[in-house]
Design a protein that fits this description.
This protein is an alpha+beta fold and 440 residues long. It has one domain (9-13, 41-100, 122-439): Cytochrome p450. Helices cover 45% and strands 9% of the residues. It contains 17 helices and twelve strands. It has helices at residues 43-47, 50-59, 75-82, 113-118, 129-138, 143-147, 150-167, 175-180, 182-192, 199-209, 219-245, 251-257, 267-298, 300-308, 313-323, 355-358, 393-410; strands at residues 62-64, 70-72, 88-89, 172-174, 259-260, 263-264, 329-334, 338-340, 343-345, 350-354, 414-416, 436-439. A five-stranded mixed β-sheet has the order 1-2-10-7-3. Helix 7 crosses helix 17 (393-410) and helix 13 crosses helix 15.
C-alpha cells in the first residue's frame, strides 16, 4: 500500500551499492582505509537504525565516515556541538560540499535554486544574521497566533477522519495518506494563506525538494529538487507581492509586514523562510504522527494505556518524538580545530549530528530502547537546541496531540495491516511511505 503522501518513487535515494562510485569518498585519516563499520545508507538501516546507532556509540561515537564527514552519535558530544554556535557553524556558505552532495551547488560553483533559497533560511545562518531573521519571523509566529489555530486543527482532524471513513475500504485507514499527511499541509497552508486549490501542488513541490537536504542524493533527484525549488520560489514570490499590495490576516502578510527598528525582511528572505516554515512544518509533523502511531501499535501496552488515560497524551507525544525522531540528522561545520571525544575535528570539516542516536543513549535515557509514555522529565533534542530551537515546536505539538487524541477516542483498537511497513529512503527524514490500519 503506497500513500499519496509518500515520496515519489523517482525521488528515492538508492542504496550505496546501487550508486555511482564517483561520489565523495573519505580522505585517509589515521591510516589506510578500511571497511566502514557504520553505513547509514543501507536498506536495513532505513528499516531500523537504532541497533547500528548503539554499536557505533559503543565503538566509535565520534566517527570519521567513508563519505568524508564526521558522524556524532553520543548525546554528550551532540549537545556540546548544538550548544556551541561559535565553533560549530550552521552557515551554508562555509560548506564546500553541502551535506556531501556536490550537486547542491552547480558545477560552476554558482548557487542552484536549492542553495540560493536555503542560504536565506534561519536554520542555515549564524549570528548575527540568524538573530535578525528569527527576530523578524517570530513576530508573525507568536504563541497567540499558534494557539488561535487550536479549534481549527481539532475540527480539521475530525473532518479528515470522517472523509477517510466515508472513502475507506472495509474499515481501513492509511494513517499517512488520510491523516498525518494532509493535516500539516492544511494547517501551514491555512496559516500562510495558501488557497485550498493550490495546497496539493505545494505539497508535491515540498516532496520533490526534500532530497536536497539528504546526504549522497543522486543527480536526477537533485535536479528534480532544484526544479521544484524554483517553482516554489516563483509561487510564493507572486503570493507575497499580492499580500504586499493587499494584506490579509495570514502569516505571509505578517511576514511581509514584519519590521524591527526600521529593518524588514527582503522579498527573498520572506520567500525562503516561508519555504522553511512549510517544509519543516510538513515533514516533521507527518513523520511524527506516522512514526508515533506505528510505535504505539508495535507496543500495544502503551497504546492501551493511552486509551485508559488520555491525560497522558501530551507526555506521550514527547516520548514518541524521542523514541523515533522524524529528523534524524542535523548538520554543522567546524569553524576551527576542535577536539571532541578524543578526536581532532579540523577546521572546515562537515559534521553529521545524529539526533536519533542521541535519543537512544542509555547514559541519558534509562531503558532508552523502551517506549514509555509515562517517562518523566523528557528532554529530547527533537526540536534542536539553543539558537536553532524550532520556531514551530508549539504548532507541531498542537497538531500531533489533536491527531493522536482523535485516533484514541474514535477507535478503541487499531491493528496494523502490514507486518513490515515500507520506510522512506531519506535517512535525514525518517518516515513511513504508508501506515495502513484496520479500524475497530
Amino acid at each position: 500500500m503506497e500513500s499519496k503522501f509518500a515520496p515519489l518513487e523517482s525521488e528515492a535515494c538508492p542504496p550505496m551499492s546501487e550508486r555511482s562510485a564517483s561520489g565523495p569518498v573519505s580522505e585517509e585519516r589515521d591510516g589506510p582505509p578500511s571497511r566502514d563499520p557504520f553505513n547509514p545508507f543501507t536498506a536495513a538501516f532505513r528499516r531500523d537504525p537504532y541497533p547500528s546507532y548503539r554499536r557505533i556509540r559503543e565503538r566509535d561515537p565520534v566517527h570519521w565516515s567513508f563519505i568524508g564527514v564526521w558522524m556524532l552519535t553520543r548525546h554528550a558530544d551532540i549537545l556540546k556541538v548544538l550548544k556551541d554556535p561559535v565553533r560549530f557553524s550552521s552557515q551554508l556558505s562555509r560548506w564546500d560540499r553541502y551535506p556531501s552532495n556536490p550537486k547542491f551547488r552547480s558545477l560552476t560553483g554558482e548557487s542552484t535554486p536549492c542553495a540560493a533559497v536555503s542560504e536565506l533560511m534561519m536554520i542555515f545562518r549564524d549570528p548575527p544574521a540568524h538573530a535578525r531573521l528569527r527576530r523578524l519571523v517570530q513576530q508573525a509566529f507568536t504563541p497567540r497566533a499558534v494557539q488561535s489555530m487550536r479549534p481549527w486543527i481539532a475540527r480539521y482532524v475530525e473532518r479528515l477522519l470522517d472523509e477517510a471513513e466515508r472513502d475507506g475500504l472495509r474499515g481501513e485507514l492509511d494513517v499517512i495518506g488520510d491523516l498525518a499527511g494532509p493535516l500539516p499541509v492544511g494547517v501551514i497552508s491555512e496559516m500562510l494563506g495558501v488557497p485550498p486549490s493550490d495546497r496539493d501542488f505545494i505539497r508535491l513541490l515540498s516532496h520533490r525538494f526534500a532530497p536536497a537536504f539528504a546526504p549522497m542524493t543522486p543527480g536526477p533527484a537533485m535536479d528534480a529538487a532544484n526544479e521544484a525549488c524554483a517553482e516554489f520560489v516563483a509561487y510564493f514570490r507572486e503570493l507575497a507581492q499580492e499580500r504586499r499590495k493587499k494584506p490579509g490576516t495570514d502569516l505571509l502578510s505578517a511576514l511581509v509586514a514584519a519590521e524591527d527598528t526600521g529593518d524588514r525582511l527582503t522579498e527573498a528572505e520572506v520567500v525562503s523562510n516561508c519555504f522553511l516554515l512549510f517544509f519543516a512544518g510538513y515533514e516533521t509533523t507527518v513523520n511524527w504522527i506516522g512514526n508515533g502511531v506505528h510505535a504505539l501499535l508495535r507496543n500495544r501496552d502503551q497504546f492501551d494505556l493511552l486509551q485508559k488515560e488520555p491525560a497522558l497524551v501530551p507526555n506521550a507525544i514527547e516520548e514518541l518524538l524521542r523514541y523515533d525522531s522524524p529528523f534524524q540528522i542535523v548538520y554543522r561545520n567546524a569553524v576551527e580545530n576542535v577536539e571532541l571525544g578524543g578526536k581532532l575535528l579540523q577546521q572546515g570539516e562537515q559534521i553529521f549530528v545524529f539526533l536519533g542516536s542521541a535519543h537512544r543513549d542509555e547514559d541519558v535515557y534509562p531503558r532508552a530502547d523502551a517506549l514509555d509514555v509515562t517517562r518523566k522529565g523528557i528532554t529530547h533534542l527533537g526540536f534542536g537546541h539553543g539558537l536553532h530551537f524550532c520556531l514551530g515546536a508549539a504548532l507541531g505539538r498542537l497538531e500531533v496531540e489533536a491527531a493522536l487524541s482523535a485516533l484514541l477516542r474514535r477507535y478503541p483498537r487499531l491493528d496494523l495491516l502490514e507486518a513490515e511497513p515500507r520506510w522512506g529512503d531519506n535517512i535525514l527524514l525518517r518516515g513511513l511511505r504508508a501506515l495502513p490500519v484496520r479500524l475497530r
